[in-house]
Amino acid sequence: MKFCKKYREYMKQREVNVDLPGVGFKQLKKILKRCPKRESIAATNSNASRCGDDLDSSLSGCPDHCPVCDGTFFSSLLNEMSTVVGCFNERAQKLLGLHLATGLQKYMIWFRSKQWKSHSGLIQEGKELVVYAMINAIADFKEIHYCKQGQAFISQAQIKHLEILRSPWLCELIAFHINLREGKHAKKRAVPDLFDGCSLAFEFEKPILSCALFDSVKVDIHLTCSICLDTVFDPVALTCGHILCYMCACSAASVNIVDGLKAANPRKKCPLCREAGVYEGAVHLEELNILLSRRPVKLLCSSIKLPLNCFAFHYSCPEYWEQRLQAERVDRVRQTKEYWESQCRAFMGV
């Protein structure tokens, strides 16, 4: 397993991040050595090296029920994935909380935490956890356990929301990096390109947040709301990974904006993937909202009245975003008024 050696060398180079959890390749490799299919592949490999036979037919993966892989390997890998993803989400929340805090609150956070060093150092930690450990690990294990077990493992990871590339905090970190790079103080301080290739691009007239993490790994996050078909405004990420406008998400969950998504019925489903219970743990993407509000992007003018025809794409500016903000505010005030009027009627028994 060549990747195991490369990964250990990679982690040793990051001495400042010794407290970060990693994937225990040494332990997982010992488990793989007990796999009966792996032993048969090794025997076939030695015979084929003498006879010159093709090994493609023999590398079809484990049997349907492998006691080693089903009972030990994938459960151990799943636990380690959960630890790494949990650590990544926690550190990302702390980093973004510090960046979004203002005034005295920011200084209180700095004084309370002894681990804060710099924005660049914390983003670097996030980058290490995001890709190199998890994506390459899963790809390498899937190469050994080709089909059924590997696919079942990936499906289980998706159900438990352990795909770190679909984490809302990754989207926030990318938006945070672009905001930091293009902010008003960017010229005064050097901001390293820790996320190479971060950009807000367009594909078929739709905004996409792109980030090239490695030469072979690229993340594309679509920023078009599937309900209003407009660029997401005040975006929220559901636990399934899909991003919607906050008001559209409230409408899909059949809740009032005053109660919020936490009041959604657990049986309510995502309008895209139809997964239930995705609203209670929704994450507000504040960094992404800041990025979209000040960047010239193409928007679909379907929510407010503009000189262009409805459903026509155009380049926006802060003035457009302000108009959309005003339109959203009117709708929110109306819903809030209706909510409290209904509460008053219920209280008075009318």
Automatic annotation (TrEMBL):
Tell me the CDD domains matching this sequence. Answer: RING-HC_BAH1-like
Coiled-coil parts of chain: none
The organism sits in which domain of life? Eukaryota
Key word Nucleus present: no
Give the RING-type domain ranges. Answer: 225-274
InterPro entries from the xrefs? BAH1, Znf_C3HC4_RING-type, Znf_RING, Znf_RING/FYVE/PHD, Znf_RING_CS
A GO molecular function assigned to this protein is: zinc ion binding
Q: Which Pfam families match?
A: zf-C3HC4
Keyword annotations for this protein, in alphabetical order, are: Metal-binding, Zinc, Zinc-finger
Q: What is this protein called?
A: RING-type domain-containing protein
Q: Which organism is it from?
A: Stephania cephalantha
Q: What is the lineage of its organism?
A: Eukaryota, Viridiplantae, Streptophyta, Embryophyta, Tracheophyta
